[in-house]
Amino acid sequence: MQTSRLVPLVLSVALLVSVLPATAVGPASAADARVTLTDTTVTPATPVAGAPITAETTVRLSAGSDTPLRLDEVTVRDSDGNTLGSAADLGRLSPGETLAVPVTFDVSDPGTYDLTLVVEGRDTDGDDVRATRPLSLGVERAAPLVELRADSLVADADTSVQAVVSNPTNAQLRGITVQVTDPASGDRLRRTAPALAAGASTTLNFSVRATEPGTTNLTVATTYTTPTGAEVTSTFARPTPVDPLTDDVDVRVQRAQADDTQQQVTTGLTGLLGGGGGGAGALQPQPDDSETTSDEAVDVTVTNFGNAAIEDVVAAAESPNGTVLAAVGRFAVTDRLEPGESATVEADLAGVSAASVDFVATYRAGNDSTQRATGTYALDPAVGQATLTGLDVTVDDEGRVAISGNLANVGDGDVSSALVAVEPTDAVQPAYPQRTYFVGTVASSEFAPFELVAQADTENATSVTVRVEYTAGDARTTDRLTVPLPADDGTDLADGQQTATLVAWVGAGLVVTVALTLLLRRRRGGDR
Predict the structure, then answer these.
(1) By C-alpha distance, which of 90, 97, 115, 119 is closest to 105?
(2) Which helix (H) or strand (E) element contains residue 169?
């Protein structure tokens, strides 16, 4: 009977113990040292991976405890029980006292972490006392983020590389230093951003050089100061292709255009590359915007079609035998020309008697070697020459004349603003709808068709005159061609016999004209 009464009593005590708070763990003799963890604060408010994180928690020994507590350690542990950070030798707590304990740790990867704060100590009897508190933590990606913008490098040439630094957190980052290791020299190139606001970004420019084609590693080291004052360094290496050096520079010379954006060379550049006093080797000044451009002025444009920047670009005017023309001299074009860029200077060729001028651009390319590129400008430019070919003339019973044919360009240059018209006479007048025909521009060795209409007094008219006007070079030219009308011999004009005879006659004249033109060209070329 006594045994049966004892069992319910033991079960009641066990149930009571199971529902009590588990703030302190230890043997029965140490149960009076009741310790808790409260008021945990995490700094920074937005932790980042790889940077120090501080969790400051308050350790409290309940005033109802019968014994003081020696604090051995406060730790931060992950879900597997591994210790991430700890604070030790914290002293003693008397009943009712509290102590704020900071614990610093870090995590290597961004994400959400379920951590545990653990406090451990001993009471006056030497028994262990332990309490825990959960800590949930969201960790962002390590800051700052560095993006390296370099699709490829060029062997034996300086290549521009950009490092874009951004701060993805909601706190300012200070003292950001980015170092890029030059593949050729091994030097660490440094650029600094004193501060970077939350969410902001900045671009740092570098110039590196690779030694040979293939692939090289660009090593980037980033050092920054966190909001807590800790200095953190992160490093990564990016494999980057290295292309062979392509040197492709073009010099183009054309008649000067009225363009305010073209680059001008001032007199202050004369002493930069040597020379002076207006000699053949001296850099020549350019006219300022207030001066009128000379009729002999030309634009010299240097374009870098290669894959590496060129430097110290200078243009010199030379005769075909390589002699620098003193009247034109040399011009500093630009200090540096990136791939795909162009720079233009103006030169005045007044007083130059040569048939052509070579503009030679010298510049420094990969490995600081000096290269040359040449553009030629002809002072006696090609000129177009228009003539009429394939003429077909018909007359109907009412005296209406239809003229068709082609305006051909047998010259070396273009003809522009070409106009074909019927020249009025007493017996022939231009008629609607094709009194005149605007042909426009015809390139060398090309032709364009035209049609004209006239009204003729068939009893008195024997021919029709076609007027041709066009511009070739700087000159406006007017030519006239008299074409006989088909004879009225009673035959049917529709059968095309008379028209065929006329076309054959005009064609024979054209053959003679072209032959004479070619002969004159050959003689002119021989004289040169």
Answers:
(1) 115
(2) none
Residue-by-residue DSSP string for 451-514: EEEEEE-TTT--EEEEEEEEEETTEEEEEEEEEEPPP-SSS-GGGSHHHHHHHHHHHHHHHHHH
**What is the 3-state composition of the chain as percent helix, strand, coil, each rounded to the nearest 5?**
10, 50, 35
Six-digit token string for 191: 């650029």
Site of tokens 């035209």? 450
The single residue listed with the structure tokens 């950001």 is 176
pTM of the predicted protein model: 0.47
Question: Mean pLDDT by 10-residue block, N- to C-terminus, for the chain (528 residues)?
Answer: 36 30 40 82 84 91 88 94 93 91 90 94 89 91 82 90 87 87 92 89 93 92 77 87 94 78 36 36 46 71 94 92 86 92 92 86 87 89 87 92 95 92 93 93 94 92 94 89 77 39 46 51 48
For strands 128-139 and 214-225, give the pairing: unpaired
| 527 backbone φψ class: left, alpha, beta (φ>0; ψ -120 to 50) | alpha
